[in-house]
């Protein structure tokens, strides 16, 4: 319920700049537009939040979605209740 306050705190803490580390080892120079959960879930602690630009947030979210899809496909299909 205090998400907007937490979001602003994280953006200010990170200097309103994306904290994604580029392959060169440098920090992304883009302005931060999103606040991301480092570890997905319900942990809204400041240690689990970081500022990202829209592009890097979309990149991370797409990767998480792909990983979840792979895991879902590995689960054996449940049998229809009428076939038990």
What are the defining features of this structure?
84 residues, 2 strands, alpha+beta
What does this structure look like?
The chain has 84 residues and is of the alpha+beta class. 38% of the residues lie in helices and 10% in strands. The protein has 2 helices and 2 strands. The protein has helices at 3-13, 54-74; strands at residues 34-37, 49-52. The chain has a two-stranded antiparallel ribbon with strand order 1-2. The N and C termini lie far apart (44 Å). The model has no long low-confidence stretch (mean pLDDT 88).
State the share of residues found in helices, binned by percent: 25-40%
- Span from first to last CA? 44 Å
Would you count the extended β strands for me? Answer: 2
User: Nearest-angstrom radius of gyration?
Assistant: 18 Å
List the total number of helices: 2
Task: Give the low-pLDDT segments.
Answer: none
The overall pLDDT average reads: 88
Shape category: elongated
Class by alpha and beta content: alpha+beta
Q: Give the amount of beta strand, in percent.
A: 5-15%
Listing every helix as H and every strand as E from the N terminus to the C terminus, the arrangement reads: HEEH
The main sheet orders its strands as 1-2
Largest beta-sheet characterization: 2 strands, antiparallel
List the helices and strands and how they pair.
Layout: H1 3-13, E1 34-37, E2 49-52, H2 54-74
Antiparallel strand pairs: 1-2
């Amino acid at each position: 319920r205090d998400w907007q306050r937490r979001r602003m705190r994280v953006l200010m803490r990170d200097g309103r700049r994306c904290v994604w580390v580029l392959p060169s080892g440098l920090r992304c120079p883009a302005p931060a537009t999103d606040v991301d959960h480092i570890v997905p879930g319900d942990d809204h602690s400041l240690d689990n939040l970081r500022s990202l630009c829209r592009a890097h947030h979309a990149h991370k979210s797409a990767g998480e979605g792909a990983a979840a899809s792979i895991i879902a496909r590995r689960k054996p299909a449940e049998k229809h209740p009428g076939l038990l």
